[in-house]
Amino acid sequence: MKRTMASISSNKMSNVLLGLLSASVLATFGTIFYHFVDTSYETETAIRATADEAVVFQGVYVRDENVLTYSGTGAVSYRISDGGKVAVGDVIAEIYPDESAIEQKQQIDTLQEKLDTLQRISSPGTLEQAQPADLSRQATQYYKDIVKGREQENLRSVSASRQKFLEALSMYQIVVSKGAISFDSQIADLNAQIQTLQASQSQAVGDVVSDASAYFVSHVDGFESQLNEESLSDMTPEKLNDIIQEASKGSNASADGVIGKTVSNYDWYMLGVIDNTDLKYQVGDSVTLRLISTGAEAPATIQELRSTGTDGKVLAVVSCETMTSDFVQNRTERVEMIRGEYEGIKVPRNAIRFKDVEETTTDEKTGEEKTETVNCRGVYVLDGEKVEFRRLDVIYEGKDYVLSSLNAGDGYLIQYDSIIVEGIDADGN
After folding, report:
1. Is the dihedral of CA 149, 287, 226, 228 positive or negative?
2. Measured CA distances, 414 to 32, 344, 383 (Å)
3. Cα Rg, the chain, nearest whole Å
4. Are 161 and 147 contacting, i.e. CB atoms less than 8 angstroms apart?
5. What is the pLDDT of residues 315-337, one digit of tens each?
6. How far is residue 357's CA from residue 371's CA, in Å, rounded to a whole number?
7. Phi and psi for 29 in degrees, rounded to 5?
8. pTM for this structure?
């Protein structure tokens, strides 16, 4: 059979194209197979997270405090708990002839509290609105609050949560029993006990009344007259440390005739030594003070930053105009001072890579477009079988992670991307 040159040439070309096609197919399948069998990629889902830029220090309160006294004879029974708010004319404490009279009064108060609780949860109006599922959820939440309060050593919170827990549990029992459970006999017995104790109760021989709207604290520490706005200018790190050490030894509440103090001015200061080597904190900055013990927060302003003579260390004077019961009970407090709060996409530092990316910018004056190569910080993500580079718009830098903006735009990391944290080099291989 005779073959022409054209047919030979055509066959050769077909063989070449077939070879190239085969090589391309093999390469494609090879890539797919490689990614299928290669399990070295370790990924982490890009999720939303928040971070605080903050510094923690041992702070000292400077407040307008007024020491309260009485004649010094008799025993004191407090009507206001620590951190409680009082108005002008409110009775802060009552004076009784002796301790036994106070013990009897405390018995009556305890019994009365139990009586009030049983009467409240047994009220037909209350029970009509109660639903077992709601009561069960409430009891569960109050139990969690008890545990949290114990962890934070917040006894007031524990006591309040315990009371609510018992009420919710008792109401649940009454509702699910459909009237089979009743506290009528306990209510009658408590009434009888209270009446018996009241018949022999000694009366108060005096009282201590508030002369201003204020917060009350039952103990003093001896710094009430020393720590005020006038003393701020004389404060040094050494004096501050002495106060912290002295305050840690406990209060001076045993002084004759002293029953406590009131804090009437809502303006107060927090003093503490912080590390400001990187100059993140400046005079005039708005910050948030957060108590480590309770989590209570208050907005504040950095009033002054004094050099301590130690590199990077400064004495911070922070002013605040928000007063609550959480900020009156102690002289010193472990405090977190927050300068900024950030929300973004969390990226582990070990996943960050750098890559040259072409970027087109437009001159605002001329409208001329210019394309240039920029070395960008980003991460590689796994999109199906493909590995792609995503840029980062970093808004916060932590020790082992950064936060990237939530809505940075095209080409940037977005929520729920699969970030490759291991198994890829700087070139994306």
Report:
1. negative
2. 25, 10, 12
3. 35
4. no
5. 999 999 999 989 998 999 999 99
6. 10
7. -65, -30
8. 0.61
Q: What tokens appear for 74 in the block?
A: 């008799």
Q: Between helices 155-177 and 132-151, what is the axis angle to 10°?
A: 160
Strands 65-69 and 206-209: unpaired
Q: What's at 267, amino acid-wise?
A: D
Task: Give the residue from 250, 216, 212 showing the smallest Cα distance to 328.
Answer: 216
User: What digits encode the pLDDT tens for the residues 122-171?
Assistant: 776 666 666 778 878 888 898 888 888 888 777 777 878 887 888 788 77
Element (H, E) at 194: helix 184-199
Cβ atoms 345, 414 nearer than 8 A: yes
Q: Are 17 and 25 in contact (CB under 8 A)?
A: no
Q: Which two tokens stand for residue 54?
A: 């903050």
Name the residue ranges covered by the structural domains of the chain.
42-50+345-422, 67-209
Asked if 331 and 221 touch (Cβ cutoff 8 Å), the reply is yes
Looking at CATH, the fold of the domain delimited by 42-50+345-422 is given as 2.40.420
Residues of the chain with pLDDT under 70: 1-39, 124-130, 178-179, 250-255, 426-428
CA distance linking residue 349 with residue 357, whole number of Å: 20
